[in-house]
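sanity check this record:

:::
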Amino acid sequence: MLAAGGATAVAPVYLVMHHLFQPNFLDVFFWTLNGYLSVRFRHRPSPTGLAMIGAAIGLGLLAKYSTAFCALSVVTFVMISRELRPWLLSRWGVAAALALVIVLPNVGWQAAHDWPVLAHMAALRRNQPGHVAPTDFLLDQLGRILPGVPLWLVGLAFTLTPAGRPYRVLSVPFGLVIGLLLLSHGKNYYAAGLYPPLLALGAVAWERWLPSARWWAWAGRASLLLLLPLLTWRVFPALVPVLPMPELATYVGRLVHDNPQFAGLVRWEDGELHSLPQDVADMRGWPEYAPLAARAWARLTPAERATPCWWAPTTARRAPATGTARRWGCRRAIRPTARYSLWWPEPLAAPSAIIYLTEADEVPDAAAWFTSTESMGHIRDPFARCRGGRVWLLRGPKPGVGPWVRGRVAEARAGVEG
């Protein structure tokens, strides 16, 4: 179990997820919980066990809708299992009802707002997941759980043996979910929740094959533990940015050049390879936006400050824009995408000026609706994903700017923009 815990702690996907405080940890937790409860139900079927699986699925859906993949795979396994099929056919109502009750408030909200999740998923299909090739997805699975490969692959193999037959409740859903993610062009980290149960199962298999009474078995167990840091130490600086940026860029470039299997570290959402991991580049450049936005604010007249619109097209730009806006008591920054449009103030008045933050060195399309367009400066950080991005001050609204803004609202809510 020490090996399973260590592999989970230092696996690249979990190391980055927890170090950067990413919200995906809830997804991984509930998938892992589902795996544990499924194994428990396979050994000791009971109405309580089935209800607990339903509760875990409901809570997982609140964390992320991709839990539906996990739920579908578990139900499929139970349906093809002779021992468990009678339980599902006769007692499924309790588990389904419990999951529905838990997720019902979220479903109600989605229905009341015309299912924005569907618009969001459509935008994702247009802009991101289609870039993930199946071969890249499968290779990235090995890289993202690199220290645990000797465990989770052994765990999968163990389920093919007579002793591991009860644990096919883990391996069959694993294959189904990987297949679904390949068909739906899911991102490589979507499968992160599948591995902790298999890591634990692989550790159990190794314990069975390496009996504690033999000296060579102890040597084998010690080798497994030593293998964990050996498999991780080379990629650790790329996962947890402990090096200064110039040294990190050089290190990552040499690492990927000499070891093509690590290319997934620098493959961004656009499907291209870059000089730094995307998570690192995303954290750069933020401090430069705030003073540029403050400079734009200082140029506004009192009348223009009454209804300015802080327009931030991406999440990375929205954070500094919102912070700067609040500092001067201005309305919140607006991001013209489906995920944020439902929280825009109503009614949305025609802006007297727009402070527009962009990621590229280009004049925004909103400039066509204003008589004055002035650049406040650009992002100079050479390691920032938004390098070259600018802050624009748009003043002197033309007739029709109000309907144009409201049209952008409608487009965002319909999922036209991602």
Summary: The CA atoms of residues 305 and 329 lie 10 Å apart. The longest helix spans residues 85-112. The chain has 19 helices and four strands.
